[in-house]
Design goal:
single chain, alpha+beta, 5 helices, 7 strands, 26% helix, globular
């Protein structure tokens, strides 16, 4: 069983979003507005494609917003949603917030419980917390999950 979790720090959010296959929801604590985005890495690793969920199927109903290239979010000629649309403006604002040392208190960032790199369901509590599974963590430069006292106790009991 896989459950989502809140990404609480700026670093967690950046690591998750740039893992290569991230689906996450931004929630405004002020207004309650929420938008779900999908950010996928290009095959050559030089840019990321950004889409926003616009339909009922949360696996395929994403509309293309734009790209992230060299750390900058921008629209392209193929963008389906433009500046001025709430979902576009929310992502653009969020992306600029990642230049700051901390996420704003008025924003929550949630992942859906799947690895931000490969998309597999997460089951290990520490993986769920950071949004990236143990195999993928080393591939995105996060290193191996640390072994906790709970993990050791569980392994010894089995």
């Amino acid at each position: 069983m896989s459950h989502g979790a809140q990404l609480k720090t700026r670093d967690e959010a950046v690591q998750f979003i740039q893992a290569g296959n991230a689906v996450f929801t931004l929630v405004s604590k002020k207004t309650g507005a929420r938008f779900t985005y999908k950010v996928t890495e290009s095959d050559d690793g030089k840019l990321f494609f950004v889409g926003v969920l616009t339909g009922p199927d949360n696996t395929s109903d994403y509309s293309y917003l734009g790209i992230i290239r060299a750390g900058v979010f921008m629209q392209t000629a193929k963008s389906r949603i433009w500046p001025g649309a709430p979902s576009y403006d929310a992502f653009a604002w969020f992306w600029k917030q990642l230049d700051k040392p901390a996420l704003p208190d008025t924003l929550e960032v949630w992942h859906e419980g799947r690895c931000g790199r490969c998309g597999r369901p997460l089951t290990v509590p520490e993986s769920i917390e950071r949004g990236i599974g143990p195999e993928c963590a080393s591939k995105v430069g996060l290193g191996k999950l640390r072994e906790t006292a709970d993990t050791r106790a569980f392994q010894e009991a089995c």
